[in-house]
Amino acid sequence: MSTEIQRFDFKGAALRTLTDEAGEPWFVAKDVCDILGIDTNHLGESLDSDEMNTLRITEGNTRGNPNKTIISEPGLYRLVMRSRKPEAKEFQRWVTHEVLPSIRRHGAYMTESTLEKAVTEPDFLIRLATQIKQERAEKEKAQAQVERMRPKALFADAVETSKTSILVGDLAKVLKGNGVDIGGTRLFAWLRDNGWLMKTGSSRNMPTQKSMELGLFEIKETTVVHSDGHTTINKTPKVTGKGQTFFVNKFLGHREITQ
């Protein structure tokens, strides 16, 4: 995931974003919560694990904890629905009608300051064009990988022998691309209801012993260093290559994988 921050301004409030390898936008959770009037301490109760992540972001000489919680585009919309502030709908419209189309069309948000740089700094457009070219190349590479994960490849060798694990939300995208009407939230619920992920407690959304023994999941651990110096471990379930094939087979009615 790119750690290059793009800064936007919503009525004087900062909104920082960045993009992942597939070109999908992520938002710094604190900025979104400040705008929507939501307590950041309860994000885990509002969002699924694939809708939030922790990333080390260093911005110049800014002090404080560099590990920032970021949320996905679907996660942002869920927080908008929770917000009681009258500006929530206006904020969502601004994001969907201005910020996201500009990012996806140009690879950058063309604010007045950006345009001023383009005029006053001769090398700025060259740097911007280089950045856009690199981001497009990365996006095309990621898209090519998704194409390779479609049914013909899935049921050949590509995924079964893959060493790349993906998030549950990414598996939902693969399923949706193959005609299965499901999103990340519904897929998490299905996995819990069918005994592949745990349902309750601190281990909610973690793989069950059965799914781990079958090699369908692995757990990614991320160390978070807090501002007071103490550390915590964030755990995220990821679907292995074998797991990807297993669940796609289940949804599309093909043969099941045995141990």
From TrEMBL:
In Swiss-Prot or TrEMBL terms, this protein is called Phage antirepressor protein KilAC domain protein
Q: Which PANTHER family match?
A: BRO FAMILY PROTEIN, DNA-BINDING PROTEIN-RELATED-RELATED
Q: Which InterPro entries match?
A: Ant_C (IPR005039), BRO_N_domain (IPR003497)
User: What is the native source organism of this protein?
Assistant: Bifidobacterium longum subsp. infantis
Q: Which PROSITE patterns match?
A: BRO_N
Checking SMART domains in the record gives: Bro-N (SM01040)
Upper lineage: Bacteria, Bacillati, Actinomycetota, Actinomycetes, Bifidobacteriales
Annotated Bro-N domain ranges read 2-107
Superkingdom of the source?
Bacteria
